[in-house]
Specification:
mainly alpha; 18 helices; 72% helix
């Protein structure tokens, strides 16, 4: 049975969404020009920074899709109020598939992946012997490309199904798609977990093919959902100055979003600590080099910074119930956490190329360029649909907040 919208409730996004989309496109174009210049002058630095920026924005898109599927399985008004924000981010996956092309170029040109180079160009004897086997079975150029096509095909399929059924609930008399959402979301979360784990191995872990970690995929996965929740809080704060978000977003929903941020932060810390503990306990040369490289040459300061300001400080702040219920305060922490996600990815990726701490202009310019185009497409998607699927049965939890009974945690 369909749910009728409340009288005089306009669910359409405010005009500011279009304005932000236009400004984001300008930022993307300006920084994109600088990025192209850097690509010509310093191609290696460009491709390293490109991988960093690509993984950062991919995390927001895929993390949003994961949170959306979690909401479809668990229910709750907390997810309804940001459902279209998550959906707009999820629908940027086609753009990210196009933006992946430079990564294919990086492999074809033997730029940042050492396994893509001819074996006779690798001076390290032990690494060359290690790559002789792995480059014949898994780390091949064609395998890299075909697996990427498979990953994006799965992600685009999930995005299409969830978006298509969601759009149907914008019309009066729409059918209840709750069962459809659940039928896709369960297997979808499993597919997401497997595909992002393999993608993390292909695109990030293989930068150092001599290192392995069975939990690395989960480290990347939890970072993505944390990025997505922080991004959703930022966007809902921007929209909170305008209708209809000012009418939909209650302190209870904000509190729920804060609790999700706290949960994801704790799980992120748990996975990272587990990876460190397993490698430390094993004490194997092929594994411990990962941390030896990241704890020396100045990289250790970045690691300590991440531990303190990605986990310890946010964890302490998010324990405060009043803080989690105030969107004006929570948005500042969400913005900081999104920045820390970039720093964390920087600490994971960049030490593969430099033994000493080295921050290049490309590390700043290229991620901003990618982000400008990504945000332009995101806000375009956000402005295309109502901010609330008013004819979906779950909309009653937002249209009539009294029906929402949050926990007091």
């Amino acid at each position: 049975m369909s749910t009728a919208p409340a009288k005089q409730f306009d669910p359409m996004p405010p005009p500011v969404v279009k304005t932000i989309a236009q400004r984001s496109l300008i930022v993307g174009a300006v920084f994109g020009i600088v990025a192209v210049i850097l690509a010509i002058k310093s191609p290696d630095e460009f491709f390293r920074a490109y991988l960093l920026g690509f993984m950062a924005w991919l995390g927001v898109a895929l993390g949003s899709m994961a949170i959306l599927m979690i909401r479809h399985l668990t229910g709750g008004g907390w997810g309804v109020v940001i459902r279209r924000i998550l959906g707009a981010a999820m629908r940027t996956v086609p753009l990210l598939a196009v933006l992946f092309i430079p990564m294919i170029v990086a492999v074809l040109q033997h730029r940042i992946y050492i396994w893509a180079k001819p074996l006779d160009q690798i001076t390290d004897k032990h690494l060359r012997e290690h790559l002789e086997d792995i480059t014949k079975t898994y780390l091949t150029t064609s395998g890299f490309i075909w697996r990427a096509i498979f990953y994006f095909a799965i992600w685009n399929l999930l995005s299409f199904l969830l978006s298509h059924w969601s759009k149907q609930t914008d019309r009066a008399g729409a059918r209840d798609n709750t069962d459809r959402f659940k039928a896709v979301s369960g297997p979808g979360l499993i597919l997401y977990g497997f595909t992002i784990s393999f993608a993390a191995v292909d695109w990030v872990m293989s930068l150092d093919p001599s290192w392995i970690s069975t939990i690395f995929g989960l480290v990347v996965l939890i970072g993505e959902v944390l990025s997505a929740m922080c991004f959703a809080v930022i966007v809902e704060r921007i929209l909170y100055n305008y209708k209809p978000m000012s009418e939909m977003l209650t302190p209870d929903f904000v509190h729920d979003h804060g609790k999700w941020m706290l949960a994801f932060t704790m799980v992120w810390a748990y996975f990272n600590f587990s990876q460190w503990l397993i490698i430390w306990a094993g004490n194997l040369p092929s594994e411990i080099t990962y941390y030896m490289r990241r704890l020396n040459g100045g990289w250790g300061y970045i690691g300590l910074f991440v531990v303190i300001f990605h986990f310890a400080v946010p964890f302490g702040i998010l324990l405060s119930r009043p803080f989690k219920r105030d969107i004006r305060k929570l948005v500042w922490l969400a913005s900081w956490m999104l920045l820390m996600r970039y720093v964390d990815l920087f600490w994971i990726i960049e030490p593969n190329f430099s033994k000493t701490l080295n921050i290049t202009l490309a590390d700043v310019v290229v991620p901003i360029a990618i982000g400008g185009f990504w945000l332009a497409y995101f806000f375009r998607n956000l402005g295309a649909l109502p901010l609330l699927p008013v004819y979906d049965p779950s909309a009653i939890e937002v249209l009539h907040p009294a029906h929402h009974h949050p926990e007091n945690a």
